[in-house]
Amino acid sequence: VEGGARTVRGRHAAGADNVLVARALAGRFAALGLTVRLRPFAWRGHRIANVEAEHRVPGSDGAVLVTAHLDSTGDQGTYVDGAGVPRPYDPAADPAPGADDDGSGVAAVLAAAECLAGLLAAGRGPARTVRFVLFNAEEQGLVGSKVYARAAAAAGESIAGVLQMDMIAGRRGGGHTVEVHAGAGVSGPAAQASEELGEVLARAVSAVSASLTVERITGPGDPAAGRSDHASFHERGWAAVAVSENFFDGAEPASGTRQYHRPGDTLDDPDHDTGYATDIARGVTAAALTLAGL
Ligand SMILES: [Zn+2]
Question: Distance, CA 70 to ligand 1 centroid (Å)?
């Protein structure tokens, strides 16, 4: 900020740092040579933005989206005032590091973008448009992705598939399970197409990250149905899946983070494993680039 470093304490949609982070992430994508747009919208009086970075392919029959959410929250934490009396969470001031939720997904999207940039620099190009999108205000009811999907539908865009990564670093106990969520809260072609997309994704993850055990979760009973940004695309009739650590499905022993929506969701959290997140990111990137024709 103005030539100096600034420590970000949180990325809550109501916090001032959210806007700075969105701009910084846009800069990271721009440095890779992608076409970057901040897609602003209003949420409860706050002017915030989704971040979109695109490699456009003229004549593409649909865009492949690799996505995560850039906002965070600490609303499950315990907070006390100066006198030790419990007080409510203050989204504008309390820390919300969100390293796993969803810093891990954001880092993976950036890594996927770097991978595409490397291939482009080597003279290879996809057959489909590829977009990297970081949604805002996911924690407030999938607000940013709903705005984004609505606008895409209104513009008559074609989306071949959405690969959302939300919480991919939590690995308490050293499990190897990764969840691929294709379940949709809607029925019809989007639900079927999402199941097929989930199959493609599961195959890619298994192929390039053999250490992972892929758990495919399908159908309307999927506990992640409606719970991450992929759902906003189901509502508009597009294929979308969410990838996560072993967190949502309730199978025991769960091996996701214990710091969900707490100030302890930091890089130092012993529940986090960056190698595990890397394996997931590699698989999702392979699936996305394959879908894009690379
Ligand atoms: Zn999340």
Answer: 9
**Domain extent listing, the chain:** 16-291
User: How do residues 81-100 score in pLDDT, each as one tens digit?
Assistant: 999 999 999 999 899 999 99
Distance 261 CA to ligand 1 centre (A): 9
Q: What is the pLDDT of residue 175?
A: 84
**CATH topology assigned to domain 16-291:** Aminopeptidase (3.40.630)
- Render pLDDT for 240-266 as a digit per residue (tens, 0 to 9): 999 999 988 777 777 888 999 999 999
What's the gap in Å between 102 CA and the centre of ligand 1? 5
Distance 77 CA to ligand 1 centre (A): 16
Cα 143 to ligand 1 centroid, rounded to whole Å: 12
Buried b (16+ CB within 10 A) or exposed e, 115-144: bbbebbeeeeebebbbbbbbbbbbbbebbb
